[in-house]
């Protein structure tokens, strides 16, 4: 990747110039950025990405590729960070389907001017390397999270749901942790404090209702808020959760904006 000033000399100035042009010619000054490390598949991925973006008629975009460092940069006009993240997730799923077995490593940002993107990427593009066999989406703004951020544990068997919630809630200033089942979640809750548990009811091992009961029997001080985010819509189940002291119950599919408002009310 772009480890040295010499390596950055060809791609980075051209990329910054394009960002500056797009920002200066847009009165709304919003530009979403998606970086994708493509390995040796750069040209093949470029074609798939370009075709998908063109098919999405509401997207105005620019695409650049750096063959020498296997980097694809996508610039989305008038896209805030949450919208940029949405398109990054869609592109990640597209590439995973088309090129099975290839880890998709991305980073995203949203900027208002060229100076802001320069500050965000300075010395950080080298982070876009394939570390092991796992796909990843990273937010280049994550170092801006406040030191006193509320700690949220997301418990869900669906990796894509956890990934979306992690990025969305991090963008909103929360410190986010993940668990894929009730057992691993309980281990984390035993060892470290959380301000809120955001959990699905359909869990592996122990399902959601006994999981909530386990948390309440820990007598944690202070006790974390508990919010259900579930596909279950049975009114009797929802009523029972509230009777057990759950702070809120949100059904899937959900609006991220509504989720943010409901979590804010919990605090």
Name its key features:
267 residues, alpha/beta, 5-stranded mixed beta sheet, 5-stranded parallel beta sheet, 9 helices, 21% strand
Report on this model:
The strands form two sheets. This protein has a five-stranded mixed sheet, sandwiched between helices. The chain has a five-stranded parallel sheet with strand order 7-6-8-9-10, with helices on both faces. The chain is built from nine helices and ten strands. It is of the alpha/beta class.
Provide a compact summary of the structure.
By secondary structure, the protein is α/β, with parallel strands linked by helices. The protein is 42% helix and 21% strand. α1 packs antiparallel against α4 and α3 packs antiparallel against α5.
